[in-house]
Amino acid sequence: MDTRDVLIIGGGPAGLSGALVLARARRTVTVVDAGEPRNAGAGHMHGFFTRDGMPPERLLETGRTEVRGYGGEIVEGTVTRAEEGFVLTLAGGARLKGRRLLVTTGVTDVLPDIPGLRERWGREVQMCPYCHGWEVRDRKIVVLGTSPNSVHQASLVRQWSPDVTFVAPKAPDGEDAARLDARGIPVVASEVRRAVVEDDRLTGLELADGTVLGCDAVFLAPTWVAKDGLLTDLGCELGEDGFVKADQTGRTSVPGVWAAGNVVAPAGQVVMAAAAGSMAAAMINADLIEEDVAVHLAASA
């Protein structure tokens, strides 16, 4: 079994960005990609300068081509096991070994159990106004109170439209109520039964009393579940937020293991994930150089 300099698990923006940096640094690098991008349901991505409006799949296709152009390897598959010494076992039984490991497996967005929402996720149902607010500017928008951050989210969304309504089972009180009032955001206290869709387009939300609150878009804060099983299997320490701890370079508590992108920073946009992958790759390359120097010095002592 050949040993690569770096194995990267996850072929999204963070993983491909890291692979590009490492391949250009003349490192042998293999990316293992399960083909499950977080933004698969979105038609376009935004906020990435020079790439604004590009379909997410085209970004990944371009990234794969660039990585391969510098000798990087991309393997389609799922890693089922990671062992000490950075030996990975894939679902089909293939095994890979690396000197360093970069994990960029991302996060799963768990939505509230409201019929119809999941089917519109990435379309009219979104979470990030910086990513998709412009596309629904001046439209009727509902923000669902699904987390402690929902009031903040509603305040943000109000920047893109004057017609924003906050919907939650219980109306906010105290400072949260004052903040919504300051932004001119009315509150509807109700459960939501389902998303109303007509002609393949979200047109409203049916409330508990059967009335339909018309809207063109919905923003909500999903529950984030990191795809970090391989990191925890290797013994990486978790932070108070439940996500694997990594420093600003992506270095985890386990020597030789880095993590970048949404797996450790779930709120990061595509451009942020790509930057994190690039930073981690540079630090991994430096770490490998230090190891090579130490081995040489020990041998010549």
UniProtKB/TrEMBL annotation:
Sequence ranges assigned to domain FAD/NAD(P)-binding in this UniProt record: 5-274
MF-aspect GO terms: thioredoxin-disulfide reductase (NADPH) activity
Catalyzed reactions per annotation: [thioredoxin]-dithiol + NADP(+) = [thioredoxin]-disulfide + NADPH + H(+)
Keywords: Flavoprotein, Oxidoreductase
Keyword S-adenosyl-L-methionine part of the UniProt annotation: no
Keyword Flavoprotein appears in the UniProt entry: yes
Family annotation (PANTHER family): THIOREDOXIN REDUCTASE 1-RELATED-RELATED
Protein name, per record: NAD(P)/FAD-dependent oxidoreductase
Organism expressing this protein natively: Actinomadura darangshiensis
